[in-house]
Amino acid sequence: MAFVLPVPSMQDLKLKLQQSTLVSPAKQTENKVFFLSNIDQFLNFDVVTVHFFKANPDFPPETVAKRLKMALERVLVPYDFLAGRLKLNLHSGRLEIDCNSAGVGFVVASSECSLAEVGDLVSPNLGFRQLAIQTLDNLGPEVDQLLCVFQVTSFKCGGFSIGMSTNHVLFDGASAQIFIENLATQAFDDKPLAIIPCNDRHILAARSPPHAEFPHPEFFKPDLPAGLGPPAFDCEREELDYTVFSLTLNAINYLKDKARESISSTSTKITSFIVVAALIWRCKALSNYTEYNKDTVSTLFNIVDIRSRLNPPLPNSYCGNAVLAAYSSATCDDIEKWPFSKLVELVAEGPKRMTDEYVKSTIDWLEINKGRPRGEYTVSSWLRMRFGEVVYPWGKPMHSGPVVSYRKDICWIFPGFDRVNALVSLPAKEMERFVACFREFFPQSIIN
């Protein structure tokens, strides 16, 4: 098991900006207002990923940039809302997208570094933020409303990266996967879309009249002045440390064995994600634990795909946010004292609540209260995402993964080669305690 730390010497990738422009759909699309569901409403923040590629003599970076720009123009026809602008409907107080073909951001840059000099691509290197610019300041104030920006960066070795910054209102993980697969097909000369997206988000509209049948402690109703839209699911911005906790197969098996030691429910499915999420929750709760706050309740959010949980199920091609947060709560004192199996059971129980009735009640509760999530910490699994398997004309990525951000309230769990990686961002003192708690949980034979 390894702890992957930032590489301070490479936080400046010595980038030179070559092109910064807007890309619009290849042909005229309908000017319309695009409905956003109640789940979409509070997810107004950017998700940033970078995808690294080896040098390909048949596709030098300048050719890749041209192909990717062409692919964007093509894919923005079925995905016309990406080229729109987010706006607040003052009458309804809801966010919606003005589909006006204003365009998505497109950046071309070059680095004086080689990929070998950059080093471990899984490392939470702050320099990777330069590979996925989120705003295009040179194009005027309208650009501040961009919903997505794509960036091709060439390295002196001939390798390159594609950075993607997308507003979460556009996609959840599953629909982002489909979008990237479709984007890749359009970079070829004659390939159709991999999957036709289902863009009708009215499927997840509230019932009329809305009726919340369950209590929803995972949300709270904010006290908002009249005329303001839904609050963003955001957090305070502060200086953070970043660590990727990389768990080998041996470490995962150790966690599963610990979970089975005294688990009470035979129906609890012990998966790699569940045991890693339970451990992350324990370390996060105890990173703030003292004698004075032992009765503080720690709540973990586990992001659950609801597509197959509805009746009838959502189309697999549903393009939007079809995810909700399953919650698990306990006091810090209990989290420290309980056996690991108890935490695993609590994390595994959360998704079982996500029935068709509960999901519809959640959507209706959000309609009534314009609420936002209440949880202290969120784990989001990318283990089923196949970003690294997407085939472009220039091949598959060497590595695809999230870029560190200012968010200290989300842990991204993503796949590695024969391991599971967890990207944690915390203030320095909390991170120090988190790392200590993490190490203490494993025997030396697994850590070394």
Describe this structure in words.
This protein has a 7-stranded mixed sheet. It has 11 helices and 18 strands. It is of the alpha+beta class and 448 residues long. α5 packs across α6, α6 crosses α8 and α6 packs across α10. α3 links the parallel β7 and β8. The chain folds into 2 domains: 203 residues, 2-Layer Sandwich (Chloramphenicol Acetyltransferase), CATH 3.30.559.10; 229 residues, Chloramphenicol Acetyltransferase.
SSE arrangement:
Elements: E1 2-4, E2 15-23, E3 32-34, H1 38-41, E4 46-53, H2 61-75, E5 85-89, E6 94-99, E7 104-111, H3 115-118, E8 148-154, E9 160-167, H4 173-186, E10 219-220, E11 241-248, H5 249-260, H6 272-286, E12 297-305, E13 323-331, H7 332-337, H8 340-352, H9 356-369, E14 372-373, E15 377-381, E16 399-402, E17 410-416, E18 419-426, H10 428-441, H11 444-447
Parallel strand pairs: 7-8, 12-15, 15-17
Antiparallel strand pairs: 1-11, 2-7, 3-6, 4-9, 4-16, 5-6, 8-9, 10-14, 11-18, 12-13, 17-18
